[in-house]
Amino acid sequence: MDLHSLPIGATAYIKELSARDSIRRRLLDIGLTPGAKITCLYQSPAGDPRAYLVLGAVIALRLEEASQIEVICPEPKEGCTWD
């Protein structure tokens, strides 16, 4: 499951980044590393970008960036309802 598909209010953990080169470096630099806990806070009225909480900081990611981040849900009770 990619990060952009994470429901608003749900929490997951980063599994892997498929981004390459400078985008990958930027994502790693802002704390999007495997194992990091990430919560989807809200999205803009147009739907893109979305705001996420990671390592105590709120960051905004566009669909293009968020779709390159694979996440896993720790438990269904936390709001992750995908299969």
Low-confidence stretches: none
Give the end-to-end Cα distance, rounded to a whole number of Å.
9 Å
Number of helical segments with 4 or more residues = 2
- Secondary structure: helix percent: 10-25%
Order of neighbouring strands in the sheet with most strands: 4-3-2-1-5
Strand count, sense and barrel status of the largest sheet are: 5 strands, antiparallel
How many domains, as an integer?
1
Extended strand count: 5
What's the shape?
globular
Which fold does the CATH topology refer to? SH3 type barrels
Molecular structure report:
The chain has 83 residues and is of the alpha+beta class. It has one domain (3-75): Ferrous iron transport protein A (FeoA) (SH3 type barrels), CATH 2.30.30. Helix content is 16%, strand content 34%. It contains two helices and five strands. It has helices at residues 21-29, 63-66; strands at 11-17, 37-43, 50-54, 57-61, 69-72. It has a five-stranded antiparallel beta sheet. A hairpin with a 2-residue loop joins strand 3 and strand 4.
Write the topology of this structure.
Elements: E1 11-17, H1 21-29, E2 37-43, E3 50-54, E4 57-61, H2 63-66, E5 69-72
Antiparallel strand pairs: 1-2, 1-5, 2-3, 3-4
Question: What labels would you give this structure?
Answer:
5 strands; alpha+beta; single chain; 16% helix; 2 helices; globular; 83 residues; five-stranded antiparallel sheet; SH3 type barrels
Summarize the structure.
The protein is α+β, with helices and mostly antiparallel strands. Helices cover 16% and strands 34% of the residues.
